[in-house]
Amino acid sequence: MTRNIVHIIILVLLFIPRVNAQQPVYNELTEKDGLPDFVFYSLLEDREGYIWLAANKGLYRYDGREFKLYSSKEKRGLSVFGLKLDSHGRVWCNNLSGQYFYIEDDSLKLFCDLKDVTKGQPSKFIFFDRYLVTSNFDFFAKIDMETKKISFEEKVDYFSDIFKKRTPYFMRIINRFDIVQMVRFLRITCRFP
Q: What would the CATH number be for the domain defined by 34-113?
């Protein structure tokens, strides 16, 4: 009886057609297709399926056929970085001039300008509750997204404090900027009301 079951299973397995994985589908875009730049710092897909590109020459939205440039009269410089979506589905970016922008009503709007503290250095940012939390090696700030009130934290050399203690190997191989970001974020989140 068990021998018959084994034979049946073997016969079934022999006659099952091979299943092939699909070939990946991709489109290669070039300057001929309207690709606006060759240097991209960040890519993001929004809730509506648009692809956003933070590029050396500005912020672009790709709808599958064409690229649309988003700019603002208040924007200093061309390059933008750090594309993110907030809880309302708005696309955000920042630039080396310390400006933070978001897309609303199909236009790029300035949220805040921290040019005096960023000093031309790249800054990373995240959203936490009702705050935009941003940092680089020279500053750490939380910005209330409703009131736009900015709170700065004192500059502390967290990096040296971390490595005075034993740290796991994976923490040592993360770059310095990310470690400072993590520690500062943990420190400031404890102070939120």
A: 2.40.10
